[in-house]
Specification:
This protein has about 450 residues and is an alpha/beta fold. About 40% of the residues lie in helices and about 15% in strands. The longest helix has about 80 residues, at about 1-80. About 35% of the residues are buried.
């Protein structure tokens, strides 16, 4: 009996032990599951916190960048002449005292910019074509389209002799243009305007190019002609305050320019004589294109709309066309003395963003109005008082023309704008002194009555 009780007690104890063991085991399993779930949640929370910290760091960096940009723009926009700009008064100074050397990466190899050669009755077009073909880096990147007017057979044969090196198109309308008897002497100017409109329409509307460089058949080009236009194309395309790039300096005589082949400017005066135009700009001009005197029309305020062109210190073209519809106007006095650049400038390796309006204005106006103002006699008779950069101030047309005559620069105006002028300022060299012929700093704009 006693053993039976012992067995019963042992069985009860065994069962109780197993029950206790079961519950302990069950609780341990639940605790492990809970711990695992908590661990997963903590891991996810840690990852979220890490990502949030990264996002916050990026946001902070972006705020810093935006702050720097804002402060820079504030500094540039408070005054056209920013404080602390270091003047570099020497013969090679001017706006490029602050030219950037760090290159901006553009896909230059992807740009296709045709050269439109405007031809008529000059068999000497071969001089122009020979240099274009010699200096162009790629036939595919710079196709040459020769648009011929006049039906001149000898000229057509010369153009045809280049085979697939050029594309030869012919202006189909050879009719005379009706003009009043007193204006019939200007027939040539009207035909040129008609030819330009047709030829540019072919380049942009038929060949579907995005930009073109226009040269006439009496122009020589410099060795870095294509480099110059290739590098300035993105600036022209992206800056709405620009509407052309020109290879020409109207005051580009040897004695009036520095030796800096990289020096570029903005100008309010449309120079022509080797210039680049975009398709978007042509869309604006095409519907309003004039019947005659197209280049003077380009200089009118309602056409220009306060936009500027880029032009070089040293011309990338010069003209050998003394005979033409202009009867050699300005050729003997000016054009034949224009210096053609011979030193190649690697513009595509430079940052040309300084030519955009807000950067350029700040630098250029500081350079001009930071220069000492002297009299014309102090410049010519006292060697500029020893300064390497000086300013001659004018307030009226007669004073400007007097300065221009003494300096040797062109003294005419078109729609009130002096040749090469920007904000009323014309620059040249005088015996190794950089001269700015400038209006007062509170200049109000061009006066058409000066033309």
């Amino acid at each position: 009996m006693r053993w039976r009780k012992i067995y019963i007690v042992g069985a009860v104890l065994f069962v109780c032990w197993n029950v206790v063991t079961y519950y302990v085991f069950l609780n341990n399993v639940q605790s492990r599951g809970m711990l695992l779930r908590l661990n997963d949640q903590l891991t996810k929370l840690q990852q979220q916190v890490h990502m949030q910290i990264q996002d916050n760091d990026e946001l902070l960096e972006d705020i810093k960048r935006q702050k720097e940009i804002f402060l820079k723009q504030q500094k540039e926009s408070v005054n056209l002449i920013p404080p602390g700009f270091k003047l570099q008064h020497n013969a090679e100074s001017s706006v490029t005292a602050k030219r950037e050397e760090k290159p901006i990466v553009h896909p230059y190899h992807n740009f296709v910019i045709p050269v439109l050669v405007i031809a008529c009755n000059r068999p000497t077009v071969n001089k122009c074509l020979d240099l274009l073909i010699k200096y162009r880096p790629s036939k595919e990147q710079f196709p040459i389209i020769v648009s011929q007017d006049c039906n001149h057979e000898e000229t057509a044969k010369v153009i045809g002799s280049y085979g697939d090196q050029v594309t030869h198109i012919k202006q189909p309308d050879q009719s005379n243009i009706y003009l009043p008897p007193k204006e019939n002497k200007f027939q040539g100017y009207y035909k040129i305007s008609r030819h330009y409109k047709w030829a540019l329409g072919q380049v942009f509307n038929e060949f579907s190019h995005k930009a073109t460089i226009i040269v006439e058949d009496d122009l020589d080009v410099a060795p870095d002609f294509f480099e110059y236009f290739l590098a300035t194309y993105p600036i022209l395309r992206d800056d709405p305050t620009l509407w052309c790039v020109s290879a020409w300096n109207d005051n580009g005589k040897d004695k009036l320019i520095s030796s800096d082949s990289e020096l570029l400017y903005r100008t309010d005066f449309f120079p022509g004589l080797g210039w680049m135009l975009t398709k978007d700009m042509w869309k604006e001009l095409e519907t309003k294109w004039p019947d005659g005197f197209w280049d003077d029309w380009m200089r009118e305020p309602q056409t220009r709309k306060d936009r500027a062109c880029i032009r070089p210190e040293i011309s990338r073209t010069d003209t050998f066309g003394k005979v033409g519809v202009s009867k050699g106007l300005f050729f003997e006095q000016h054009l034949k003395y224009i210096r053609l650049n011979t030193k190649v400038a690697e513009f595509t390796k430079k940052d040309l963003s300084y030519l955009t309006e807000h950067k350029y204005n700040a630098m250029f106006l500081q350079e001009v109005y930071g220069a000492p103002a002297i009299s014309i006699n102090q410049l010519t008779k006292e060697n500029g008082l020893g300064h390497k950069t000086v300013r001659l101030q004018y307030s009226d047309k007669d004073t400007y023309k007097n300065f221009a005559k003494i300096l040797g620069i062109m003294n005419d105006f078109k729609a009130g704008v002096p040749r090469t002028g920007y904000k009323g300022i014309v620059t040249c060299m005088y015996k190794n002194i950089r001269v700015y012929v400038a209006p007062p700093q509170n200049w109000k704009g061009y006066d058409k009555s000066w033309s």
